[in-house]
Amino acid sequence: MAGRDLDSLVQVLPYIVVGLMIAFSLGKQITALTLGEDVAKGLGLRTGWVKAIASIVVVLLAGSAVSLAGPIGFIGLVVPHIVRFWVGVDYRWLLPYAAIWGAMLLSLADLTARLIIKPQELPVGIMTALVGAPFFIYLARRKIKS
Predict the structure, then answer these.
(1) What is the pLDDT of residues 102-115, one digit of tens each?
(2) CA gyration radius for the chain?
(3) How far apart are CA 46 and CA 59, in angstroms?
(4) The pLDDT of residue 122 is above 80
(5) Fewer beta carbons under 10 A from the terminal one: N or C of the chain?
(6) What's residue 1's pLDDT?
(7) Distance (Å, rounded) from C-alpha 30 to C-alpha 109?
(8) What is the C-alpha separation between 84 and 137, in angstroms, rounded?
(9) Residue 48 and residue 93 in contact, taking contact as beta carbons nearer than 8 Å
């Protein structure tokens, strides 16, 4: 986050606010989609629309994160999988907990990056990669075994 100023945040803030509002309002629908498309349709969900809107939200939020934070924005891919172990698959709970845990994980990675080779600093992207890469390998191996 070094070298970023408030102007960068101000430029991206409308996209973040809109993306978060829509994401939190889609919690029930996305949870229904996790049950399967047939079940979701049986519950009266218009799955095509939900998928399209969710895709737009992903582009808004991921684009905003990467434009502000660069490659450390990928932490948003790791954290929901970690949080899912504790809160389950209900996206009404998963989304807010993922936001909190993502902030905590990034803060911890930044603190570690500052302290590990003191008085110099490692880029926080290296620390997040040390957490993220093994976790992605674990997820990939788990999917292969399933």
Answers:
(1) 989 989 988 998 89
(2) 17
(3) 20
(4) yes
(5) C
(6) 58
(7) 30
(8) 17
(9) no
88 found inside a domain: yes
CATH classification at residue 22: 1.10.3470.10
- The candidate with the shortest Cα–Cα distance to 67, out of 143, 15, 29, is 15
In a domain? residue 116? yes
Tokens 């803060």, residue?
A: 107
Q: Is residue 115, in this structure, part of any structural domain at all? A: yes
Q: Is residue 1 part of a domain?
A: no
Structure tokens at 91: 């996206």
**Alpha-carbon distances, residue 1 vs 9, 39, 123, 124 (angstroms):** 11, 43, 9, 8
Q: Length of the chain in residues, anyone?
A: 146
45: left (phi over 0), alpha (psi -120 to 50) or beta: beta
